[in-house]
């Protein structure tokens, strides 16, 4: 009987496959899982990352039929001494600061409002989350219409509907150009879109706070403000910081919303660094070496800011 | 058991990856739809029979890349006719405008022979010629006489590089330029005409020069009625604002460079400064609200929405204005070319594309492409091309009564194609464009500085880019 089984396993391919499987070690199976992923990571992440680092030290156009020419740190020097780049960085900084700050306040406020269970609270929460589920390009085009001075709803909301004088995206009131309105318009849309994200994270933090903390505070006759300041805020802070971290990184890379709304204009008022990068990397320029250097500078800034946040987050967690 | 399941999953994953890797590197974009209504008109022309064998050896199909829009469908119909006549199939591969350039140039950088030809933007010629992507068509265009069949301006700006060199890299295929659409119901209203004459002292009609144009724009600017004089390009994204300003710059006698590529003293010439100042005044006094980021779609929308009496646009986007389903004023919409400048100069910003042959394909395929261009360039086929809706550059077809009466905007188009001009077409055109877009946007839209300061700044920055690239020798 034993000999029959052995023979059949040799002739039957299914049985022979099983035998091979039995012979594979755990390590071999692990490798089978890991290597395809590693190959993909190397091909689509690591190689472009290091190749673009190399390109950042060269003069190279992706559309040109010439090899990259090594120019050392010239691209970095040009970028860091270019006033228009600093202008774009300043605009981006302003955008990130106001956008993330407002999202934090609005998101936190919304979370506090819908924290308690009430009739229809699930529906209200879902409705609040709708903006962040939309595509930024769609949101951009949608708000472009909202801001239209002829028929847009926004001017009616702020009481400018009749005059038709306020043109938010043109940064104009009548024939008068007013600096900053266009950037404020983009920030407003970003806040509308992403405050629900902050709300969602804060809400999960609020729901995780044990009731006994509030009960103990109430017994000690602690005021609502005291409870908020000494219980709610510290308990929610780790999640709030994560939300702020995500939003900061996203805001630093903000591109599609701005392109949909203003295209970086008027003038340079909404020219964020990601928009600038897109222009030099594509749009007829294809300055691949220069744009790689700029992308690395942005990457370093994002990593530096993220590290600051994470250090603070760890500090708060340690204190907790 | 767990090991077997894991092994199975691992094998599946590897199979999926292998399958993905084995898939074609690039998915073909949507090809032109099959022959539709307009094709019927075309096929009514001389009954073409599938006759001859492929023109060049064993080539049975030609693939030509173009952007995804109606003219590409019309060209596909011309390709269908060519197939009927020669047996060589012509496929127009269409790529959305947003990725057209990216797809073409990345394929070229990889030396791809995916397409036999491309109908590329006029501003690509420099890169196509200097990078070795396009076949030199000089001898072919001259020996066949094709070079003489198109208007000189279109040959220069769609086909020639460097400008004035007499070397050709593309056959002018889809001519396009900026012109104006206007509301005839307003212009021909007796009350409006009377009021206009009383105010300005001359008859209200299609403006002959930009002074009259500005008068008319101001006259029809009535915010209380929701009506404004103009809809002009202001978009900063790519090239809209620069192209828009060229429509005042060229008629004012201005330009971007002289014959030796010098820009200082040319870009900031008095003519250019005056033209840019006029554009700003038009924007400030008479632009319909909501057009601060406007290109072809937005200006057309302002017109069809009854907000603007006159709008600037490429002729390629005027068919939408003659269609009553998309324009309630279609029956009373008229068209005119750019008015003259103060010294009687004419000029208009160029759009459109020329057909080039890719250098990476075999000699046999290059010959097959030349055969197709020879066939397409004949007066008979250019007439069919125009009949389908293509904007021909053939000078004789442009002058025929049939063409001039085919569409209400055709007379303006035919006139404009004799004086079109273009922006730079060297490989560095994108950098030059970014400078002009940024500086002009600051002045026109934000009101920063003066027209002189704006053009001085553009001239200085253009000069530096051109010196760095070696087009101008540093002093």
Short account of what is shown:
By secondary structure, chain A is mainly alpha-helical. Chain A is 72% helix and 3% strand.
Structure, explained:
The complex is a heterodimer of chains A (320) and B (475). By secondary structure, chain A is mainly alpha-helical. Chain A has 2 domains: 54 residues, no CATH class; 246 residues, MetI-like (MetI-like fold, Orthogonal Bundle). Chain A contains 14 helices and 5 strands. Chain A has a 3-stranded antiparallel β-sheet, with no helix packed on it. In chain A, strand 4 and strand 5 form a beta hairpin. In chain A, helix 5 crosses helix 9, helix 6 packs across helix 9 and helix 13 runs antiparallel to helix 14. The longest helix of chain A has 32 residues. In chain B, 53% of the residues are buried. Chain B is an alpha/beta fold and 475 residues long. In chain B, helix 2 runs parallel beside helix 3 and helix 3 packs across helix 15. In chain B, strands 1, 2, 3, 4, 5, 6, 7, 8 and 9 form a 9-stranded mixed β-sheet that branches. The N and C termini of chain B lie far apart (80 Å). Chain B has 20 helices and 9 strands. The chains are: A mainly alpha (320), B alpha/beta (475). At the A-B interface, helix 2 and helix 3 of A face helix 1, helix 4 and helix 19 of B.
Q: Helix/strand-derived class of chain B? A: alpha/beta
Fold-level CATH name of the largest domain in chain B: D-Maltodextrin-Binding Protein, domain 2
Give the averaged pLDDT of chain A, no decimals: 88
Q: Under the CATH scheme, which architecture of the largest domain in chain B would be assigned?
A: 3-Layer(aba) Sandwich
Architecture per CATH nomenclature, i.e. the level-2 architecture of the largest domain in chain A: Orthogonal Bundle
């Amino acid at each position: 009987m034993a000999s029959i089984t052995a023979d059949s396993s040799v002739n039957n391919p299914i049985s022979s496959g099983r035998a091979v499987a039995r012979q594979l070690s755990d390590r071999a199976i692990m490798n089978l899982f890991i290597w395809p992923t590693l190959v993909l990571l190397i091909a689509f992440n690591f190689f472009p990352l290091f190749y673009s680092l190399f390109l950042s030290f060269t003069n190279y156009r992706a559309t040109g039929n010439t090899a990259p020419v090594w120019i050392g740190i010239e691209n970095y020097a040009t970028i860091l001494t270019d006033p228009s780049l600093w202008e774009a960085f300043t605009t981006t900084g302003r955008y990130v600061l106001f956008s993330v700050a407002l999202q934090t306040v609005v998101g936190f406020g919304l979370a506090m409002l819908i924290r308690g269970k009430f009739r229809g609270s699930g529906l209200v929460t879902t409705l609040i989350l709708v903006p962040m589920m939309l595509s930024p390009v769609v949101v951009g085009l949608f708000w472009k219409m909202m801001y239209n001075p002829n028929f847009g709803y926004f001017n009616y909301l702020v009481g400018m509907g009749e005059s038709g004088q306020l043109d938010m995206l043109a940064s104009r009131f009548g024939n008068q150009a007013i600096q900053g309105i266009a950037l404020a318009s983009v920030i407003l849309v970003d806040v509308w879109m992403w405050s629900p994200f902050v709300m969602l994270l804060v809400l999960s933090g609020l729901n995780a706070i044990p009731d006994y903390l509030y009960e103990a505070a109430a017994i000690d006759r602690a005021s609502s403000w005291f409870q908020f300041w000494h219980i709610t805020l510290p308990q929610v802070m780790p999640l709030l910081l994560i939300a702020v971290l995500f939003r900061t990184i996203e805001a630093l890379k903000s591109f599609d919303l701005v392109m949909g709304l203003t295209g970086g204009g008027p003038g340079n008022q909404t020219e964020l660094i990601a928009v600038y990068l897109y222009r030099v990397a594509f749009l007829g320029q294809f300055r691949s070496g220069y744009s790689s250097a700029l992308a690395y500078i942005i990457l370093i800034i994002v990593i530096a800011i993220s590290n600051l946040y994470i250090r603070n987050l760890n500090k708060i967690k340690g204190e907790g | 058991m767990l090991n077997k399941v894991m092994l199975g999953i691992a094998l599946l994953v590897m199979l999926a990856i292998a399958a993905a890797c084995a898939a074609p590197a690039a998915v073909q974009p949507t090809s032109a739809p099959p022959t539709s209504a307009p094709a019927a008109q075309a096929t009514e022309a001389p009954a073409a029979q599938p006759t001859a064998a492929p023109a060049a050896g064993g080539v049975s199909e030609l693939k030509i890349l173009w952007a995804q829009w109606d003219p590409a469908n019309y060209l596909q119909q011309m390709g269908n006719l060519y197939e009927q006549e020669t047996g060589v199939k012509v496929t127009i591969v269409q790529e959305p405008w947003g990725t057209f350039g990216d797809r073409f140039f990345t394929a070229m950088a990889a030396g791809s022979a995916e397409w036999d030809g491309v109908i590329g933007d006029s501003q690509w010629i420099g890169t196509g010629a200097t990078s070795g992507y396009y076949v030199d068509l000089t001898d072919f265009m001259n020996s066949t006489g094709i070079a003489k069949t198109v208007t000189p301006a279109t040959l220069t700006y769609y086909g020639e590089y460097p400008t004035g060199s007499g070397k050709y890299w593309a056959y002018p295929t889809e001519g396009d330029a900026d012109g104006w659409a206007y509301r005839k119901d307003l212009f021909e209203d007796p009350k409006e005409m009377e009021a206009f004459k009383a105010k300005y002292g001359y008859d209200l009609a299609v403006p002959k020069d930009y002074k009259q144009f500005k008068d008319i724009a101001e006259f029809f600017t009535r915010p209380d009625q929701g009506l404004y004089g103009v809809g002009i390009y202001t978009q900063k994204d790519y090239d809209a604002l620069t192209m828009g300003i060229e429509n005042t710059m060229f008629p004012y006698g201005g330009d971007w460079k002289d014959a030796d590529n010098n820009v200082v003293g040319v870009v900031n010439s008095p003519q250019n400064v005056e033209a840019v100042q006029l554009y700003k005044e038009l924007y400030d006094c008479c632009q319909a609200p909501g057009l601060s980021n406007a290109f072809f779609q937005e200006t057309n929308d302002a017109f069809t929405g009854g907000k603007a009496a006159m709008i600037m646009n490429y002729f390629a986007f005027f068919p939408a204005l003659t269609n009553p389903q998309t324009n309630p004023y279609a029956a009373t919409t008229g068209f005119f070319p750019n008015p003259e400048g103060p010294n009687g100069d004419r000029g208009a910003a160029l759009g459109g594309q020329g057909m080039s042959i890719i250098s990476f394909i075999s000699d046999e395929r290059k010959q097959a492409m030349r055969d197709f261009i020879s066939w397409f360039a004949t007066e008979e086929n250019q007439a069919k091309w125009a009949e389908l809706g293509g904007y021909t550059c053939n000078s004789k077809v442009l002058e025929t009564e049939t063409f001039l009466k085919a569409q209400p905007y055709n007379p303006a188009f035919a006139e404009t194609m004799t004086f079109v001009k273009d922006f730079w077409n060297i490989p560095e055109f994108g950098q030059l464009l970014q400078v002009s877009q940024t500086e002009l946007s600051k002045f026109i839209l934000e009101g920063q500085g003066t027209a002189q300061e704006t053009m001085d700044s553009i001239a200085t920055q253009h000069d530096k880019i051109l010196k760095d690239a070696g087009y101008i020798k540093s002093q």
